[in-house]
Design brief:
The complex is a heterodimer of chains A (about 300) and B (about 290).
Chain A: E1 7-13, H1 16-32, E2 37-41, H2 43-53, E3 60-64, H3 65-68, H4 72-85, E4 91-95, H5 104-120, E5 126-133, H6 139-148, E6 151-154, H7 167-173, E7 185-189, H8 195-208, H9 213-233, E8 238-245, E9 248-255, H10 279-286, E10 289-295, E11 298-306
Parallel strand pairs in A: 1-5, 1-6, 2-3, 2-4, 4-5
Antiparallel strand pairs in A: 7-8, 8-9, 9-11, 10-11
Chain B: E1 20-23, H1 28-44, E2 48-52, H2 55-64, H3 71-76, E3 80-83, H4 85-89, H5 96-112, E4 118-123, H6 127-131, H7 134-151, E5 154-158, H8 168-173, E6 178-179, E7 189-194, E8 199-206, H9 211-224, E9 227-231, E10 235-238, H10 240-252, E11 258-262, H11 266-274, E12 282-285
Parallel strand pairs in B: 1-5, 1-6, 2-3, 2-4, 4-5, 8-9, 8-10, 9-11, 11-12
Antiparallel strand pairs in B: 7-8
Helix pairs in contact in B: 1-2, 5-7, 9-10
The chains are: A alpha/beta (about 300), B alpha/beta (about 290).
Chain lengths: ~300, ~290
């Protein structure tokens, strides 16, 4: 068998039976070739595939999407870890989250993940299958699946409009900067000793926004990491704006440099445990969603935290 | 001395090692306050602090040290040392060269004992009597400035303003880099030496602003015994770069060395996991 890079396939299914047959078949094919499988989905979907695989189900790892996709960049890390545990042997990954329940900022980030996987996994020995519920999802969510996969199968929906193929072009489109709104609270930082003040601001305003204390702690850490990057690698002044943005509360870090112009910045963990390079990687593991973009005024990183409903 | 002659207060947060400061308190209460502020900062930063004072002055300072610095523990670990004026400067006709050698030896011993630096707070009112004149005192202070820069020891020399005559205060002030403040903001983190088990108690918040202090405190302890117990139970925040610095320190230890992160919070353990900062010589326990 020849080792090649990743395949990234969109599976459009309609109903339980098609899901169980397609996903079960995909994982069984892998097992027959000695390729371990990972399945992430709702408990109901996991049960369908367990039943379809019968005794072979023992050889597949099953994970509940509600745990793995909190936040969704964690699901990406779980997949990376699973792949690296195979030590170069080819693996199969099936992963689906409850897209209909996601807030807009998460859906933008989900588009980014789906586009980036084509580049990040290019040389990785893995076959990734992304199921989309063609029978239930609205057209704009099905469109994500159509736009970001090298191949599609199943009950492929027909959604009008041009299809984008180039992942880097998609990522560039998704790096548009949203400026802070007029009512934002702003803190200017000029020295490392002021990062502690930024944490105080996140704590006081985050609590007012109704976020749980644990979530505020995570956000304070993420803000610290992004501000630290801005102070070390960026161009002064570094600024923190905090504000509401629909269903999320946003900590928006801005500096005058163009340090994160590469849309893939921080999407892979640093290969060496060096002093830097972990900031954005960690922030994505802590926040609901992370927007990164550059414009004429510099670099913007928007850290989203979902507010309680 | 006239108020106009008072030198400007310095910021203890950004004190360069080897800085020679003065203070001219007008009563014992103010004197104790200035000394305590200087001591607090030195201990927080992980340095050894030598306090040259009378028994009464030492008791007053120890009483005013904030509880999180645990004066008794600092004395037990040798991070805080108290000496009488006679022990530090001698009793009889004084050989200034011998006093200078004494400070050099104390600075060297500080590093051997596992501290990154030495700072001194000294009540100097008896010095003029010992040396015979204010002029000799001024001369000693001038020598001290060079000596302290050479050996990297910062100090505050406390002179009671109401016991100085004429322009003595202005002459003495002129031999110092600035005045030590009466009060200062509490430091973001505290790096306190612990003897048993050998290591360091880290409390507060560690980030880009004080990461280097953490590193130098850990390295100083590891230079004596490379098996270090870091008590992190009172550490309320730490960023990735600081944990990465700890990992780098653990990786630099000899084969029989280790760094134990004791009382590591969920947040610390999760950051280590997410960023894959584990190392065989860095042990982590809740």
């Amino acid at each position: 068998m020849t080792m090649t890079g990743a395949t990234h396939t969109g599976l459009f299914y309609d109903g339980d039976q098609q899901y169980a047959e397609s996903v079960g078949g995909f994982l069984r094919d892998g097992l027959e070739q000695g390729q371990p499988g990972l399945l992430i989905g709702s408990p109901h979907r996991l049960d369908l595939v367990r039943a379809a695989l019968g005794s072979d189900a023992d050889q597949v790892r099953f994970l509940d999407e509600a745990d793995v996709y909190a936040p969704q960049w964690n699901a990406y890390r779980v997949q990376l870890d699973f792949i690296s545990q195979q030590r170069g042997a080819r693996a199969r990954v099936v992963s689906e989250q409850d897209l209909a329940s996601r807030v807009p900022a998460e859906l933008v980030d989900y588009r980014r993940i789906e586009a980036a996987i084509n580049v990040l996994f290019a040389d990785t020995p893995v076959d990734v299958l992304c199921p989309y519920d063609a029978g239930a999802l609205p057209a704009d969510l099905l469109e994500i699946g159509l736009d970001t996969h090298g191949s599609v199968q199943g009950t492929v929906p027909v959604v009008p409009g041009p299809r984008s193929e180039d992942p880097m072009g998609l990522l560039a489109d998704l790096a548009q900067v949203a400026p802070p709104p007029p009512g934002a609270t702003t803190l200017d930082l000029s020295s490392p000793s002021e990062v502690a003040l930024a944490r105080r601001l996140v704590h006081s305003r985050g609590a007012e926004a109704g976020l749980a204390p644990d979530l505020v702690d995570d956000l304070a850490l993420a803000v610290t990491e992004v501000l630290t990057n801005a102070l070390i690698h960026g161009t002064p002044p570094a600024r923190l704006h905090v504000y509401d943005d629909g269903p999320t509360w946003v900590c928006h870090v801005h500096d005058g440099g163009r340090g994160l112009a590469d849309p893939l910045s921080g999407m892979l963990p640093p290969s060496e445990p060096a002093d830097h390079g972990h900031g954005l990687w960690l922030a994505r593991q802590l926040c609901t969603a992370v927007d990164v973009g550059t414009d004429a005024t510099g670099t913007h990183v928007r850290l989203h935290a979902k507010r309680p409903a | 001395m006239t108020p106009g002659a008072l030198p400007a207060s310095v910021d203890l947060c950004s004190l360069e090692p080897g800085t020679h400061l003065c203070a001219f308190p007008t009563d014992e209460q103010q004197s104790a306050q200035i000394a305590t502020t200087f001591v607090e900062r030195a201990l927080s930063d992980g340095d050894r602090l030598l306090y040259v004072a009378s028994d009464e002055q030492a008791q007053a300072m120890l009483r005013s040290l904030p509880p999180h610095l645990d004066a008794a523990a600092a004395l037990a670990a040798g991070q805080l040392q108290v000496r009488s004026f006679a022990e530090a400067y001698g009793r009889g006709p004084t050989d200034l060269g011998a006093v200078a050698d004494g400070f050099r030896a104390a600075a060297a011993q500080t590093r051997k004992d596992g501290f990154p630096g030495l700072r001194v707070a000294a009540h100097m009112d008896e010095l003029a009597a010992l040396l015979g004149s204010v002029e000799e005192t001024v001369r000693w202070e001038r020598l001290s400035t060079d000596l302290q820069r050479e050996i990297g020891v910062s100090s505050v020399c406390l002179y009671r303003a109401d016991r100085l005559s004429g322009d003595a205060g202005a002459s003495l002030a002129g031999e110092h880099a600035g005045a030590s403040p009466e009060r200062a903001e509490r430091s973001l983190a505290q790096f306190l030496a612990v003897d048993e088990p050998w290591g360091l108690r880290v409390s507060g918040e560690v980030d880009l602003s004080n990461r280097d202090q953490l590193r130098r405190a850990v390295l100083s302890r590891a230079g004596v015994v490379p098996r270090l117990h870091l008590d992190l139970r009172a550490l309320t925040f730490t960023d990735v770069g600081s944990l990465s610095a700890l990992r780098a320190t653990a990786a630099s230890l000899p084969a029989d060395g280790w760094l134990l992160l004791d009382g590591a919070s969920n947040a610390v353990r999760r950051t280590l996991e997410i960023c894959d900062l584990g190392h065989e010589r860095m042990r982590v326990q809740p």
